[in-house]
Amino acid sequence: MGDQKKRHRILMVSDFFYPNFGGVENHIYYLSQCLLKLGHKVVVMTHAYGTRSGVRYMTGGLKVYYVPWKPFLMQNTLPTFYGTLPIIRTILIREKISLVHGHQAFSTLCHEALMHARTMGYKVVFTDHSLYGFADVGSIHMNKVLQFTLADVSQAICVSHTSKENTVLRSGLPPEKVFVIPNAVDTAMFKPAPQRPSGNEIIIIVISRLVYRKGADLLVEVIPEVCRLYPNVRFIVGGDGPKRVRLEEMREKHSLQDRVEMLGAVPHAQVRSVLISGHIFLNSSLTEAFCIAILEAASCGLLTVSTRVGGVPEVLPDDMIVLAEPDPDDMVQAIKKAISILPKIDPQIMHNRMKELYNWHDVAKRTEIVYDRALKCSNQNLLERLSRYLSCGAWAGKLFCLVMIIDFLLWRLLQMWQPAENIEEVPDFTISHDQD
Prior knowledge:
- By secondary structure, this protein is an alpha/beta fold.
- The chain has two domains: 9-184 and 361-422, Glycogen Phosphorylase B (Rossmann fold, 3-Layer(aba) Sandwich); 202-357, Rossmann fold, CATH 3.40.50.
- It is built from 14 helices and 16 strands.
- Strand 9, helix 5 and strand 10 form a beta-alpha-beta unit.
- The longest helix is centred in the C-terminal third of the chain and has 22 residues, at 396-417.
């Protein structure tokens, strides 16, 4: 048993972290907090956000390195391949890290950190939070990058079974190396209102980034039709993005200013107060690996109407969600059905069920098992690892091998120039986690 409770020293790496808000950011934060409570050491590494750079501490003694790299595109740093090697090596040695955990296939920093960590002989785990296609140029390029990174990971985690299938297909990773651990929701933060919004009005809430992938174009078709069928339905739309203009044009065109309220971007701390003002939560995503927004809505006692895409059908029990195809007519039918079953919904019962179904402590314990397995993987020398990269394709395989050989040589040069014993190690300090 003593061996099983080994204390891990984990470095979480992603371009996506607070003060930016989203599913990946929340996942890293809550998972880190629960791992700290389980007695592990957790350090987060991300890029600088505006003036926020250097080392910061968050709740529970969570240490965050905001590396002074500026984001280049969509919160991602510019891919440098080797530019991040010195700083990643320093952090790994300073913090005496035993395992590196990278998040999100989009993240440049994640790919580079996993590559350097493997070169230095560290065990690495990767969590995929997204679904990708196989047809468009962006996806084909991304899948190749993922194949390169995952050719040498110790273990991988996906947030849904659909996401696992997608990752295995895209990266050629053996399925037995990929674990499914769902996201969770902080049910203490997302509680239903003491009283449901009264009156005969039915309020439908939409909170998402107003972009193509989140189905903003579907909303433009669905909202006027629902308003036409139900004079007592009102919509509250939270979120911002390039498609916001289309929604505002739709509102003008159909004269729905008094029935469609546009809130703009909603800070995460205020999401609950928006959710509890409604009865139904509408998710119109066109692709989704998991969808934390649905969990937050269900935890607040809202009945969900969602498109049947990606991992969404796995998220909630059938009596808490109405699924529809990503088609305007089908979504209108699903909203009709949801309105008819609304009287049977008890928000408090729904919240209590969510508490049992989704729990961050449970996610952390399951992740801990993956870490244990990763650390038991055999150590491989450079030649054994290069053979894995060679199998990635006739041209790509040779290119990947070249990238890794250069990385290895640069690491050796760094070791000669600045030996590990010259890097000061950080003294450990522990915070008591008695108060839950």
